[in-house]
Queue: 3 jobs
Job 1
Amino acid sequence: MEHVLRKRYPDTDFFNKEISTMTYFEGNLFKPKKDGPFTDLQTASDNDRLETDFFQRSIEAYQLALLSNKKYSFTMLYKSGSWQKYEQRAAALARKHPSRDPFAAYLSRCQHDDWDGANSRQSYRSALVRLAAQTVLELAPGYWPHVHAKTSDTEVRKQLVRHLRGNLDEATWCEIKSATHLISRAELKMFERAAAFLIQVPPDPEHTAVRQASTNSQDRSPKPRTENSKKKTLYALNQHQRRRAKEIAEYDWRSHLWTRAVLPDRHIDDKARAAIAVLMLTGCRSAELADDLGVVIRAFERNSKNYLAFEISGAKLADADAGGHGKGQERRWIEVSAQTPEGIWLFVHVSDQYDGQMLISLAAPSHSQTGIVLMPTERQRRVTNRLGKLIERLGRIAFPRLQQRLSPYVFRHALSSDLRSGGGRWSGDEIAVLLGHQSTRTQSNYGSANTSRGLSGNRADQITMVSALNPVRRQERGHPAVLDKPRPA
């Protein structure tokens, strides 16, 4: 079996462990089933406790394991470093369960709705589904020949073969015929747990059903979402601004952050300052500043005024589904009049570059410390974490009494709030484009029209034009609204 699996996954190191040569079941592994097409196995086999129904469920689990490979193969996951993360998550779950079984720990937490949020639940689900699938694909071709070999009744043996040939493809059948070892008792227990988990938690490679509401949601208070923490931080900063505005009429917290913490900080360079200015002016995602995406900036003058033009490559993208609904803007353009302190500084900085334009891209390592190639999403995540730590440190300098954590996403929420409080100047389609969305529904998670109403320093006032490649869907109307031409503000 090992050489067959290596042929299917030649670049992985999953199968380098020693394989037992034990050829007999030991002990009372399963409870017997009285009904089923293979009931005669109980008398035909040397093991009277063999659960024949598990034979059928093993085939179902094998087909589900193949489905989990639909989008990303085991080889891709291993090369990208995702497989190591899956193993770490499984180990973390196992440590928190009395039987040290990560599958039982996951199901227990789902039963009690003991997750920090949908993203946390999904990360553990993805890890355990892939680990279970790998176990099933590895052990199933050794389990089926074992059942066949231990069956003495000729007619039942024929039924087994017909059942396998009718449910498995030709490649799997070849693996079964070439299997050279029959699984041991310990491997059988692993196989049973993994197969049972896959049947109970089937693969969802397209992530279409992973954010279903918890069955206990009515009995529990809702857990705080990440967006809520950003909104709370923005609310606290705006409340701080309202208090300070009684003393300094033109005070705004973003200008204060820039002049009090960003500019004088000697531990960051101009490239980092430019990245922070881009976050404040455009509300882009931190991941969109990673070196495989980046933001192109051009400085120019028009009618004796200074302007900055941004070209942003989107980070959160998904191809259109059967209904034509995609996710994220692949590319968007934003034009800003340089009026605020960070905008003025960035205009001067970009004007000093060759041809009055530059690319802001923050480097991330291409390989992990163990030499594994990192996927683009992982490299973007590392850029996001680095910027998050930097903004948090600068926030503590500028606002020492702020109890909440300042993060790059607060700038995104703040700009969305500025746009939505503009008295209808900006349409829902334009706000969606500026935030990099393909749906007007998504913007409801960002900011609030009331949060920044009446405050000075509104960054939306200096935005003069937005455009994007993809049309925007108006969910409430049921049809897309195409923003095909840049609309001057």
Note: The beta strands are 295-302, 305-313, 331-337, 357-360, 463-468, 472-474, 479-481, 487-488.
Job 2
Amino acid sequence: MPSAARAQTRARAHAPTRHRRPLPVRAALSAALCLCAVPAAAPSASAASAGWSVAPVGGGRPSFYAEGPPGTVLQDTVSVTNPGRAPVVVRLSGTGPRTVFAQKASQGIRVPGRTRAEVPFTVTVPAGAAPGDRSGAVVARDARGRTATVPIRLRVGGPALSALTVEHLAVHADRITYELVNRGTTVLVPRLAVRADGILGRVLDRAPRTLSVHLRPGTSRKLTERWADHPALDAVDVRLTVTASGGAHATATASARFVPWGAPAGAVGALLAGAGAVIAVRCRRRPSGAAGGGPRTTGPTTGAPGFSRAAGGVPAVGGPGAAGGGQGPGPGAELTKGAVK
């Protein structure tokens, strides 16, 4: 038995040893073999054309820069680069200052693969622009909706002038209306003060306050100031004072008369009543037979002054003021032959 055990031990010692790789190493080798077995996909046409870009022409500028006084037209050029193999169609537009591109640029420019297109455009400085800096952008968009932009930096030159006017001031039943006009070259935020003086003294006094208005150069704004508690019966002079930064100052005045509605109605009623009384008195004093026919004669005065009766009882016109001390015919009267002896 001891000799058999020793023989089995010697057999195990001389047996070949099997080496095993660790599990993580085998997994990594399997994954590498799988990746190598899969062929690489070819880039699609859309992916090849998605790398187009826009930039200013010349000098590697990061943005467009323009400077000039109001009304100036400035020129520059933008390039559209297509590094892919498929053509791309790009539309160009502008934001901010008025930007006009070459013909058909807004409808779309076709840029072949591995090609660069240069498109000229103009930027117009607004005529009423205030001195200072303004911003905008050149925007490019393809048929798939992808966009790219290049900033526009615009500096408006010219002196800074603050000036405004108050125009079309009017006083209504419950409000005051007016119009502010910016006559300068800067943006104004006006301050308003209102005052009104009546016959017996001041009836309205509002301290200066800032209006929620931003007036750009060359623009105007119609505004309303409420005045519901105005006097019922008075003659007032309204004065508006407007100021703004930079020394802008303007005033305007207007007059108004406030009369209650009952006063004109009473005056008209009294006038009509007086006219009616005069007409009634004149109607009573008019002779009833003045319009009758037949000859008119004069005779001895009987009854009321100014009336006489001739033979036959025919009324006649006469009176103390007639010629001959009341015995002759009055003005416009006709003398009947044989009526007076």
Note: Residues 83 and 114 are 4 Å apart (CA to CA).
Job 3
Amino acid sequence: MSTAASEARAMTDLVSMPSLPHLPSGIVDRTPMTGIEQTRQRAILDPHTAAERFRLDHEPAPADLTPFVDGYWILRWDLTEPHRQQVLTHPVVHLTFTTGGLAQITGIVSDTFSREISGTGRVLGLRFRPGGFRPFLTAPVSTLTDRVLDIEEIFGPAARAAADAIIAEPCVPTALELAAALVRGCLPTPDPAIDKAAGLVETISADPSVLRVSQLAAIAGMSVRQLQRTFAEYVGIGPKWVIRRARMQEAAARAAMAPEDWSALAAELGYADQAHFTRDFTSCIGTSPAQYASSARRRNDFRPTRHE
């Protein structure tokens, strides 16, 4: 994959957190959240610094698109110095329209990415529900995993002109309506299996006691093999990955906020011992839990006070 495609793919995962539009720079909303909303916020590593570097707004999807689309997101930045943001990824497909002319469909990203943003820019995106992109394809969603496609590959050659209009449109509500119109032009028949897939991903996000694929299979009333096939077909990646990623996001979020008893946290997240948890965390985040916690809290504690 090209560098440009990798960066575009990483950018889509930068947006899977609740918006911070009405908060002073550097302040993170502490309003309690549950399920997938909480998990989205935890995609952003070192959220204190991130809140100062870019603005992220969310809008609900139009009612007629909600069988497929979870919502819109709008990412804006205006930087005097480049900012590199590390993000964890989520089991969703994005359709994005980016300053500079990129219009792409991004499948699930199985790794962790760092993405640098600089200058001034905007990304407008549609975030599909887990499983919600399956009816637009002629293949399982897993065929999109770790891939970025130009918009024409799914929505046809005419989509290029529509994408250019969306990117060029300065009024965000108008751009969002243009994006909705583009999707409506290719709207498939709703698939009831989407609700099942989305509900299983929500269960993982909302219930930290779900630590094993066998547990989730029992909740779903499926065999493990049936569950794995459903995730490959509709979600795009295996249930084990979704569970592990949600727990790593939980660990990183808690490490950034307060000191932790790592042994107790490892047990809570389903690890047999602290060493295994530390290896997984380091592999996923790029640093040990203690080092990440120290770095995140140090940057927050020593951030200069802003004066209005």
Note: The chain has a mean pLDDT of 81.
